[in-house]
Amino acid sequence: MIGSANLNIMVKAARKAGRSLVKDFREVENLQVSMKGAGDFVSKADISAEKILKDELLGARPTYGWLAEEGGEIPGDDPTRRWIVDPLDGTTNFLHGLPHWAISIALEHKGQIVAGVIFDAAKDEMFFAEKGAGAWMNDTRLRVSGRHRMIESIFATGLPFGGRSDLPATLQDLARLMPVCAGVRRWGAAALDMAYVAAGRYDGFWERRLNPWDLAAGIVLVREAGGMVQPLNPAGNILEDGEVICGNEPIFNGFAKVVRG
């Protein structure tokens, strides 16, 4: 692959952590244990993958900052750059033996996401993008879908679970959107949802109450694939608010109007 030194570092780190997670995933598929036992095992797999990523990324760029799901935030000597990392997006899928989860790595520079990698290790699909250099999946250049009609479009979102307070808003979104589109999918891995928008597999995606590491890499992927990415609240900030809406340009305004109500 041809890319910057930083992007190559990110891809190498994702592949190394991916090998570890695939090995653990095979164990999860065969585990005959209680939910607690499986959950403990997956937590260890998650933490192990984060350690690999941290060693690789900070080993190569020790002055950069760090923000990740398990390890929290570590300021860097270089205040303008930081890694934003989710070692296992789609943990519940992983726990249940569903092969739909990913590693997500983003590089932020002066408040902007300039590079992103989302690695679906179970399917060996490496999505990556750099600002100004396009978006790719393995050796294939990515473009968002070309659909122009909402009724022909498929969208993705996350459905709140466990009594979360944003369930009523999401149900209202679905009530407005489902009558005017071709379908809504909920696959349980926000990073892959955004990668699939970049790949033209979905026409759009929206979700609330996400974390920066769920979103960061997907932002640059969708934009570099020709898509539009905005905060759900037009006056908001995607990473700070944890809310996003994205899609291809022809249907974006109509899609956003429906979701925003």
From TrEMBL:
PROSITE patterns attached to this UniProt entry: IMP_1, IMP_2
Enzyme Commission number(s) from the entry: 3.1.3.25
Chain sites annotated for binding Mg(2+): E69, D86, L88, D89, D214
Domain of life: Bacteria
Catalytic activity, as annotated: a myo-inositol phosphate + H2O = myo-inositol + phosphate
Co-factor requirement: Mg(2+)
Keywords assigned: Hydrolase, Magnesium, Metal-binding
InterPro entries assigned: IMPase, Inositol_monoP_metal-BS, Inositol_monophosphatase-like, Inositol_monophosphatase_CS, Inositol_monophosphatase_SuhB
Molecular function terms from GO: inositol monophosphate 1-phosphatase activity; metal ion binding
GO process annotations (BP): inositol metabolic process; phosphatidylinositol phosphate biosynthetic process; signal transduction
UniProt key word rRNA-binding: no
Keyword Iron: no
PANTHER family hit by this protein: INOSITOL MONOPHOSPHATASE (PTHR20854), INOSITOL-1-MONOPHOSPHATASE-RELATED (PTHR20854:SF4)
Protein family (similarity comment): Belongs to the inositol monophosphatase superfamily.
Descriptive protein name: Inositol-1-monophosphatase
Biological source species: Antarcticimicrobium sediminis
Lineage: Bacteria, Pseudomonadati, Pseudomonadota, Alphaproteobacteria, Rhodobacterales
